[in-house]
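Researcher: Structure for this, please.
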Amino acid sequence: MDLTDRKLLNLIQSKFPMVERPYQELGVELEIGEEEVISRLDELKRQNVVRQISAIFDTRRLGYKTTLVAFAYEPDQLNAGALFINRHPGVSHNYAREGSYYNLWFTLAVPPDGDLQGTVEWMAQETGALNFRVMPTLRFFKIGVNFDMVQQRSAAHNYSPDNVGERTPVPDWNQAQAVSEFDKSVIRELQEDLPLAPRPFDAMAKRLGMDTAQLFALADEYQDRKIMRRFSAVLHHRRSGFRSNAMVVWQVPPERAEEVGMTMAQHSAVTHCYERPTFPDWPYSHFSMIHATTPEECEQIASEISEATQIKDNLLLYSTREYKKTRVRYFVEDYEEFWESEPEPELEEAVQD
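Model: Predicted structure, C-alpha cell format:
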C-alpha cells in the first residue's frame, strides 16, 4: 500500500459517502480520478485488506439477541468445533485465543424468536466442548473499530453509544425498534457489499422501487432511529498491518464498574469496551479490545490502562487464529437450515498468526 491507499482506507472506514457517485467524491478528496479510486479498492479487496463496504446495523435495535460466548476445548478438538460453529449465520466473529482455560471465543446473534441459550448449549453438545460461558453485555462503554492507516495506530474515537455506562433493567441501547417488512427489504440491500461501479447505489434503489435520493433519506432515517450505526468499510486488521489483537479482561470491583469502564473507553487504542457477568471460574467483568502492530504494543497499552485505572488484575487473551469475521446478515435465510448445510469452503481456511 502506498500513502494514497492509506488515506483512502482512512476515509472509507469512518463514513463512506452515500451519494450517487461516491468513488468520484472520494477521488476529489484524494486528488485522483474516479477510475483510480475504484481500481485501488479493487486491488485492496483482492488483497483482502478491505473486507466489505456496507451498512453497519445495531443488532439489538433490530430485535436480535446477541452475546459473547466462551468455549473450552481439548486442543485437538478446537479446530473442528470452531468450523462447526462457523456454519451459524449469526456467528460474526470467531477466534481461537490463548491465555485462559477458554480457548474459543465467538459472538452469536439469533433472531427475535430465537433461543440464544438453547443454541449455545446445542453447539457445546454437538462439538464436545468441555465447558462454556455465555457472557452478554451488561453495559456498553465503547464500540467501534477505526485504524489510522497513515500513522499505523488504532484511532477509535467518538464511537461511544448513547447512554454510555448506563445500566438499567431495560437500557436504551438494548431496546428493539419496530421494523416493518419494507424496512427489512431495505436492510437486506444495505447490508450487502457495495459494488465497485461508478454508480453503485443505482441497482440497489431500483430493486427497492425508488430512486437513490429516497434510499439515502432512508439511510439517514435509520441512523436517526439508531438501528443503523453508519455506512462504512471494514478492514482485515491483520492484512492492514495490525497483526496483534488482545482481548484484555479486567477484575474490577463492582463499586468502580462505571468509573473504570469510562476511563478504559477513553483510550484511543481501545476499540470495544463492555461490562459482562462474572462466574466462579471467571472473575473478570470488564472486556477491552486492543488492536496493535505488535504484542509489545498491546502490552504497553494494557499497562497504560492499568496505570490510569489502578486495576492490576487482568489477562491478555491474544487471538491465535481467526476462524470467522464478518457482519451478521439480518432478515435472510432461516437459521435452522444452516445446521443441515455443509460449511462454505472459505470458512475452512483460517488465518493463523
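Researcher: Any notable elements?
Model: The two ends are 20 Å apart (CA to CA). The CA atoms of residues 162 and 271 lie 16 Å apart.
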